[in-house]
Write a structure and sequence with these properties.
With 930 residues, the chain is α/β, with parallel strands linked by helices. The chain has 35 helices and 32 strands. An eight-stranded mixed sheet has the order 13-23-22-15-16-17-18-14. It has an eight-stranded parallel beta barrel with strand order 25-26-27-28-29-30-31-32, surrounded by five helices. Strand 28, helix 27 and strand 29 form a beta-alpha-beta unit. Helix 6 runs antiparallel to helix 7, helix 13 crosses helix 18 and helix 33 packs across helix 34. The protein starts with a strand and ends with a helix.
Length: 930
């Protein structure tokens, strides 16, 4: 029979730290600490499998699971000599979530469960500490009311703040026992009003309701959003941890705190954290009060501080990773409540990993497994330009590094709406888990309350967002939508700058600079990644500036240069449009000449001669326009070759439909109608009418499957000819100047080998002509994009002509799924929500269908040409999960945006290590443990 409940306590646990799948991260940590003999309050964990059963059973726990946890509760009561609901020997418990992967603040917790009217009164009499008794009871009603009964938290806070205002006190701790009893009475009336029932007094009923509420929280909106953002499966479920309460709110000899064994923001090897005396854990992490740095605990309780340092050092050495821990001190005695691998910003895990290698705790291969590739994105964030004066308004806590500049917003709703079109800074007294959507779109977050371990700090560090927390000088008025700092008043929409590395809050729109993450710990770490990866990493870049950035970040070449982007420049677009206006639906001159030569009938010969004259006229017009573009393209390619001196540059010939370079049909119609209404005549009106005629002639119902890619070069070969000439002339000019240009020309949208043959013939002819005129030669590979299922399925034939393949997975996904990527946003959202697809296939490469075409095309292409070089150049090239698919398919390289090159390098190294570990089980176990 499957086991659903695991106990821990008295130095022995039924589980261990390796059982995260079963016990969740929190439960596994509690079990491991218990087995290590650390001071952990006893309790039991209801397994993640019970959560899955709960949902499968229509949001009801099966009777056998309930029976199992009731037996565990009885054992807990026997172990501590206390019972739920017994006024004289009262057991109170916490009920907490705990998934396999850390999801800070996303699911729900209930503390002090077991409190009721009789217990609170008995506690007050027995302990002589009435304030603690009633503070614990009011906290329980508030948490239970919010989490279990689903009454908005703000309604309880309104009553609590009202009591503070009535008593004219500022701090929670200033309220007396009598004040708290008034608060409790108000809370009970609120519960009765909202639910129609009295607040439950039976502790076992409270426990049953709380356990189910914590399971339900697995699917609350913020938890679902967090899992989607962090690619955590919905199928895992959460465990529930029921643990005997220890109290940090029993007076000034009690307290609670959270911390890290190393600084999670910088990675520095320093004891780091915060605590509050006379408080419970939620006070610290919720940001309701601004906590005290953990170093100050040594002056308040030296023995507890010494013991805490000793225990957390042991934990880090045991897990060989930085630990995020929670603790409570009850009347001078220390208890450990949690340990887990600490979330950190990108500079921190890289520094920690490198330091731990240098300290001999882990190996370089283990260090590579400790950093999530996406975390490196934070290292590439901008920093403040300190060369110009900054108007520093205040200083808060540097909760998450980087610089952020944006317009002030005060609500999550405004952040979500305005963040779509402009950078925003979310300003709050404190953030709450429901703000997750807003934090996702905001450039940065500022809070007036909370500390380095508050919800805002922890979540933004995980996201890589800039955050300044606990800025005590900032007065936030949500209702008036204004921020007051001293005499300065800022309103919604005003510019604000944050420096998350120092905690500075700066007025106005400061300048920011690009960081330089190419030295120190980062350089050492990335060198290890390069030593272990098998996939090459290139960048998608169209201009020299992007190419230089890519090279700085370690790109080994350009995997995709989109030449069409060069045509949109203001000085080029008129020539492009002139060329397009001559792209009539006519035959090629060679075909007309052939018919003319065969024709004997004089009348028909006249028709062919007339047609030939028209066709030649259009060709001349196209060539005249292209001649204007030639020197511009040559200069573009020269700049790219110079920037990538010695590295390959893959240039894709013109790909998009021609209508993309023209004004929209509707805009032209309005323009013409306006000129006609004003009786304006002349060249401008005539040109607009001609342009409209061309636009209507180019109209296609589905242009992405129409006249584009190699089809353009076949219909109008002079386009391919001009681009080839620009490439070869630029490469030859580079060679004469000592620049090692390595061009690779890629023909797009090939589905049939004959298409490539025709385009390749033009390239070879132009190359021979340019080399003869320039007196030098350069090596050049000619290949194709595989972006149609037809191409993947005929890869063996295409490889006869292609010297390399580059999978264009954006279009390959589009044509495989039959989806228009420009119109499918609503479809994708629904399909992902209903789990038809595990993820957006344009964001994460689909392994079952598109991945299968990758493997098939690569395999069959190499059967024809064993040395065939194969890469990927779609947006998937920078996605870690997609890189795993590319590694399995045997590709030579991936290509991504310049700023994702470090991410791809690390993801490629991790993919290689997993493949090696799969072949060597001992290594696999080592990586899993790490």
């Amino acid at each position: 029979m499957e086991k659903y409940v695991y106990t821990f306590g008295a130095g022995r646990a039924e589980g261990n730290g390796a059982m995260k799948d079963v016990l969740g991260g929190k439960g596994a940590g509690l079990a491991e600490m218990t087995n290590a003999g650390l001071p952990v309050p006893p309790g039991f964990t209801i397994a993640t499998s019970a959560c899955r059963l709960y949902f499968e059973n229509g949001n009801q726990l099966p009777d056998n699971v309930v029976a199992d946890y009731e037996k565990a509760l009885a054992r807990l009561e026997d172990a501590v000599g206390q019972k739920l609901g017994d006024p004289q020997k009262t057991l109170l418990v916490s009920v907490r979530s705990g998934a396999k992967f850390s999801m800070p603040g996303m699911m729900d917790t209930v503390l002090n469960l077991g409190m009721n009217d009789r217990v609170a009164e008995a506690f007050a009499e027995r302990t002589g500490n009435a304030r603690w008794a009633y503070d614990s009871y009011r906290r329980f009603i508030q948490m239970f009311g919010n989490v279990v009964l689903e009454i908005p938290k703000e309604e309880f806070e309104h009553l609590f703040d009202g009591q503070k205002k009535k008593r004219r006190v500022k701090l929670d701790t200033d309220l007396t026992a009598d004040d708290l009893q008034d608060v409790i009475a108000g809370y009970k009336k609120l519960v009765k009003k909202k639910t129609g029932k009295d607040f439950p007094q039976e502790p076992r009923e409270q426990l049953a309701m709380a356990v189910q509420a914590v399971f339900r929280s697995w699917y609350n909106p913020r938890a679902k959003t967090y899992r989607r953002m962090n690619k955590i499966s919905d199928d895992l479920g959460t465990a529930v941890n029921v643990q005997a309460m220890v109290f940090g709110n029993m007076g000034e000899t009690s307290g609670t705190g959270v911390g890290f064994t190393r600084n999670p923001a910088t990675g520095a090897s320093e004891f780091y954290g915060e605590f509050l005396m006379n408080a419970q854990g939620e006070d610290v992490v919720a940001g309701v009060r601004t906590p005290i740095p953990i170093d100050e605990l040594e002056g308040i309780n030296p023995e507890a501080y010494r013991q805490l340092r000793e225990i957390t050092t042991r934990l880090e050495q045991h897990y060989r990773d930085v630990q995020d821990f929670e603790f409570t001190i009850q009347e001078g005695r220390l208890y450990m409540l949690q340990t887990r691998a600490g979330k950190r910003t990108a500079p921190a895990p890289v520094k920690i990993a490198v330091d731990m290698v240098n300290e001999g705790l882990i190996s370089p291969t283990e260090a590579l497994q400790r950093v999530e590739p996406e975390q490196l994105n934070q290292l590439l964030h901008r920093v403040l330009d300190e060369s110009k004066p900054l108007q520093v308004l205040a200083k808060g806590l540097p909760a998450s590094p980087g610089a952020a500049v944006g317009h002030i917003v005060f609500t999550a709703e405004d952040a979500v709406v305005k963040g779509k079109t402009e950078p925003v800074i979310l300003v709050r007294a404190e953030t709450v888990p429901d703000d997750i959507h807003a934090m996702d779109v905001a450039a940065g977050i500022l809070t007036s309350r909370g500390g380095m371990t508050s919800h805002a700090a922890v979540v933004t560090r995980g996201m890589g967002k800039c955050c300044v927390a606990g800025c005590g000088d900032a007065e936030v008025d949500d209702r008036k939508k204004q921020l007051r700092i001293g005499s300065t008043v800022l309103k919604e929409g005003d510019w604000l700058t944050l420096d998350g590395s120092t905690g500075r809050v700066i007025a106005g729109k400061a300048n920011t600079l690009e960081p330089d993450p190419t030295s120190g710990d980062f350089a050492s770490f990335m060198q290890w990644a390069d030593e272990h990866r098998e996939l090459g990493v290139r960048a998608n870049a169209d201009i020299p500036r992007d190419a230089l950035v890519a090279r700085k970040f370690g790109a080994e070449g350009i995997g995709l240069c989109r030449t069409e982007h060069m045509f949109f420049a203001q000085d080029r677009l008129p020539h492009v449009q002139r060329m397009i206006m001559a792209c009539k639906d006519t035959r090629r001159s060679e075909d007309v000449k052939a018919d003319l030569a065969k024709e004997k009938d004089p009348e028909k010969r006249k028709e062919f001669q007339k047609e030939l004259k028209e066709v030649v006229s259009y060709e001349k017009e196209r060539r005249a326009a292209l001649a204007k573009l030639l020197p511009m393209q040559r200069k573009d390619f020269f700049g790219l070759f110079k920037a990538m001196d010695g590295l390959p540059v893959t240039i894709r010939t013109l790909d998009p439909p021609l209508h993309e370079f023209l004004p929209k049909r509707e805009e032209l119609m309005v323009q013409i109608a306006t000129m006609e209404a004003k009786n304006q005549k002349g060249a401008k009106l005539s040109q607009a009418r001609k342009l409209l005629q061309v636009v209507e002639g180019l109209h296609e119902f589905n242009p992405m499957l129409g006249l584009r890619g190699c089809r353009l070069g076949i219909m109008y070969p002079e386009i391919t000819e001009m681009q080839a000439r620009a490439i070869f002339e630029a490469a030859c000019d580079c060679k004469k100047q000592g620049i090692d240009a390595k061009p690779e020309i890629m023909i797009p949208l090939v589905g049939e080998v004959k298409e490539l043959e025709l385009q390749k013939a033009i390239l070879n002819q132009v190359a021979a002509d340019v080399f003869a005129r320039k007196g030098v030669q350069v090596d050049c590979l000619i290949g194709t994009m595989i972006e149609l299922p037809a191409a993947a399925l005929s890869a063996a034939e295409i490889a006869r002509e292609a010297e390399f393949f580059s999978f264009g997975t954006n279009d390959l996904t589009q044509t495989t799924f039959g989806l228009s990527r420009d119109d499918c946003g609503k479809i994708i959202n629904v399909y992902v929500a209903q789990k038809i697809w595990p993820a957006d296939p344009f964001a994460v490469l689909d392994p079952k269908r598109v991945g299968r075409l990758l493997k098939l095309g690569t395999k069959e292409g190499r059967e024809t040409r064993p040395d065939l070089k194969v890469g990927i150049c779609g947006e998937h090239g920078g996605d870690p999960a997609s890189i795993e698919v590319c590694a399995e398919a045997g590709l030579n390289y991936v290509s991504c945006s310049p700023y994702r090159v470090p991410i791809a390098r690390l993801a490629a190294a991790q993919a290689a290590l997993r493949r090696q570990a799969a072949k060597e089980p001992e290594k696999a176990r080592a990586y899993s443990t790490a």
